Amino acid sequence: MSNEKQHSVLFTNRLSVGYSGSSSDVVVASDISIELKKSQLVGLIGINGSGKSTLLRTIAGLQEPLSGTIEIAGKSITNYTPDILAQSLSVVLTGQAISKNLTVLELVALGRQPYTNWLGTLTDNDKSIIKYALEATETLEFKDRKCYELSDGQLQRVLIARALAQDTQLILLDEPMTHLDLHHKASILQLLKSIAHEQGKTVLFSTHDIEYALQLCDKVVVMQEGLARFDTPQQLIEDGVIDGLFPSKTVLFDRESIRFSIDK
Ligand SMILES: Nc1ncnc2c1ncn2[C@@H]1O[C@H](COP(=O)(O)OP(=O)(O)OP(=O)(O)O)[C@@H](O)[C@H]1O
């Protein structure tokens, strides 16, 4: 195995994602080949319906690929048991079914499930990771509240805390900034960045905050017209990929300032 490959946290080869219909498959995107390494913050962008959630769900093992392969830490995802996969990747999805009757602390503690014994006994190490996850997401102050008592934005941060508590090399998040105000959006982005750059994790998150993704991410996956482009933000901008994201009659992109504006 080459040295290069050893550092690959997520590797997809000619991956095709979509849905199996009764008569034929519905291909949402195909030929997706990406390689994410340790310490990378990677944004996943594209217009509504371009396949961001479908790709994340497929990488997470929640739906089957139509074709192609997915490797996590150099091993095919098909060779992972659910327990070992849960120690390797954590997922924060939109509309995730959770028991809102749990307290925040109880929900975040569930992140430790892949590591605890069958009684779910938490060790001191588990407890300190949970405390860190609550502090990092600024959710410690409402740890004893029931999840149904939280605003959408607070709940979003709690779900990120649970993923952090799971302490996996790869963290997948589907639109983690939805429902957040500007302050919390910025703090979540800074948090994701520090998780990647300071803790050495690999973070892949989908977002409609394209400007932030281009400014902050090490790499970006652009889903467009059934294909995926994967490169540095700079290269994608230079190649005109970002200019072509939206119909030019509605939204304009300025390469210098990395800003979109609405065509008046
Ligand atoms: N369960 C499903 N069965 C069949 N098709 C689906 C299913 N879920 C999504 N799709 C279709 O797959 C395509 C991609 O959807 P997906 O939710 O992955 O896009 P997205 O990029 O995440 O969109 P958004 O930005 O609106 O969240 C869409 O055409 C959608 O209608």
TrEMBL record:
<dbReference type="GO" id="GO:0006826">
    <property type="term" value="P:iron ion transport"/>
</dbReference>
<dbReference type="GO" id="GO:0005886">
    <property type="term" value="C:plasma membrane"/>
</dbReference>
<dbReference type="InterPro" id="IPR003439">
    <property type="entry name" value="ABC_transporter-like_ATP-bd"/>
</dbReference>
<keyword id="KW-0547">Nucleotide-binding</keyword>
<dbReference type="GO" id="GO:0005524">
    <property type="term" value="F:ATP binding"/>
</dbReference>
<keyword id="KW-0406">Ion transport</keyword>
<keyword id="KW-0408">Iron</keyword>
<protein>
    <submittedName>
        <fullName>ABC transporter ATP-binding protein</fullName>
    </submittedName>
</protein>
<dbReference type="InterPro" id="IPR027417">
    <property type="entry name" value="P-loop_NTPase"/>
</dbReference>
<dbReference type="InterPro" id="IPR003593">
    <property type="entry name" value="AAA+_ATPase"/>
</dbReference>
<keyword id="KW-0813">Transport</keyword>
<dbReference type="Pfam" id="PF00005">
    <property type="entry name" value="ABC_tran"/>
</dbReference>
<dbReference type="InterPro" id="IPR051535">
    <property type="entry name" value="Siderophore_ABC-ATPase"/>
</dbReference>
<keyword id="KW-0410">Iron transport</keyword>
<dbReference type="GO" id="GO:0016887">
    <property type="term" value="F:ATP hydrolysis activity"/>
</dbReference>
<keyword id="KW-1003">Cell membrane</keyword>
<feature type="domain" description="ABC transporter">
    <location>
        <begin position="12"/>
        <end position="250"/>
    </location>
</feature>
<keyword id="KW-0067">ATP-binding</keyword>
<keyword id="KW-0472">Membrane</keyword>
